[in-house]
């Protein structure tokens, strides 16, 4: 049919189990926080979405058991460990459907106790999880004590080896270097490291970042963007996201949903 757009099949994808989080980071691209309602993806929806993704998700270059930030399938949020039972279920379902390169993205709030932390990671590994992505940045350490992040890194390296991804490693090294204990405000971070300390930061200008970090960005009137074309971003096939309400979000655009992800196969077929 004329005028129809046919999005490509997603080759890598993240599933937001919920928007609820223990933190309220200034840069959060989905504006997650503890104030979000306690809504989580339902098991039937999870099953439906995973059954479709199973045909499309491709493994990381290092193989089905390897991981990469923009490869395979990841469970995210919000904070997935806030509903640990659901996270284990989600990993088991992904394993049942044979989805490759599955990892979880976390802020490590749950990693206060070495024994319990190891137990959870081992249980997830046994359920089929291939790796862990541990967030580290100046906005997260305003909420999560660095000791927990550091312990999560140590345990994950022991249990998942090289499938431990630290995002971003430069910030982890900064905090290790100064022996950070507890939390640190962003204002204090700037006193210690200056704006120069942020030179590696990957900030995606969407969600809360546009409001809370507005002074970090150069500002333009809306008409400046009228001739921009975001087609390629909206139609890219990697690192799409599906949330707990069924929204299918491609690219890093401002929260646009292309369709109800529970009917994603129809969208890909019919445009
Ligand atoms: S920890 Fe992650 S999901 Fe939670 S508020 Fe921060 S950036 Fe958002």
Main β-sheet, in a few words?
7 strands, mixed
Using the alpha-carbon principal axes, give the shape.
Answer: globular
Distance between the termini: 9 Å
CATH fold-level name: TIM Barrel
Number of distinct beta strands: 7
- Under the CATH scheme, which class? Alpha Beta
| Class computed from helices, strands and strand pairing | alpha/beta
- Secondary structure: helix percent: 25-40%
Strand order of the largest sheet: 5-4-3-2-1-6-7
Strand content: 5-15%
Spans of at least 5 consecutive residues with low confidence: none
Rg over CA atoms, rounded to whole Å, is 19 Å
Summarize this structure briefly:
This protein has 271 residues and is α/β, with parallel strands linked by helices.
Write a structural description:
- The chain has 271 residues and is an alpha/beta fold.
- The protein has one domain (13-266): TIM Barrel (Alpha-Beta Barrel).
- Helices cover 31% and strands 10% of the residues.
- The chain has nine helices and seven strands, in the order βαβαβαβαβααααββα.
- It has a seven-stranded mixed β-sheet.
- Strand 2, helix 2 (84-96) and strand 3 form a beta-alpha-beta unit.
- Helix 1 (43-53) runs parallel beside helix 2 and helix 3 (114-127) packs across helix 4.
- The mean pLDDT is 94.
- Residues 21, 23-25, 28, 32, 77-79, 107, 135, 140 line the site of iron/sulfur cluster.
- The site of iron/sulfur cluster has 12 residues, from loops.
């Amino acid at each position: 049919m004329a005028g129809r757009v046919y999005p490509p099949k997603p080759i890598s994808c993240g599933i937001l189990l919920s928007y609820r989080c223990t933190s309220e980071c200034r840069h959060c691209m989905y504006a997650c926080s503890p104030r979000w309602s306690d809504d989580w993806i339902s098991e039937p929806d999870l099953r439906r979405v995973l059954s479709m993704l199973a045909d499309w998700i491709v493994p990381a270059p290092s193989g089905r058991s390897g991981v990469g930030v923009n490869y395979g399938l990841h469970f995210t949020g919000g904070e997935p460990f806030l509903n640990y039972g659901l996270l284990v279920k989600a990993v088991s379902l992904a394993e049942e459907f044979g989805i490759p390169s599955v990892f979880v993205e976390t802020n490590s709030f749950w990693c206060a106790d070495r024994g319990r932390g190891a137990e959870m990671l081992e249980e997830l590994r046994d359920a089929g999880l291939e790796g862990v992505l541990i967030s580290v940045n100046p906005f997260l350490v305003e909420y999560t004590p660095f000791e927990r992040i550091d312990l999560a890194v140590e345990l994950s390296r022991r249990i998942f080896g090289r499938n431990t991804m630290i995002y971003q490693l430069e910030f982890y090294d900064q905090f290790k270097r100064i022996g950070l204990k507890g939390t640190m405000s962003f204002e204090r971070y700037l006193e210690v490291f200056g704006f120069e300390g942020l030179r590696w930061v990957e900030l995606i200008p969407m969600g809360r970042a546009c409001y809370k970090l507005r002074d970090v960005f150069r500002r333009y009137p809306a008409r400046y963007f009228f001739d921009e074309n975001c087609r390629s971003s909206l139609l890219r096939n990697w690192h799409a996201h599906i949330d707990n309400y069924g929204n299918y979000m491609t690219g890093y655009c401002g929260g646009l949903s292309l369709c109800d992800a529970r009917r994603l196969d129809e969208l890909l077929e019919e445009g």
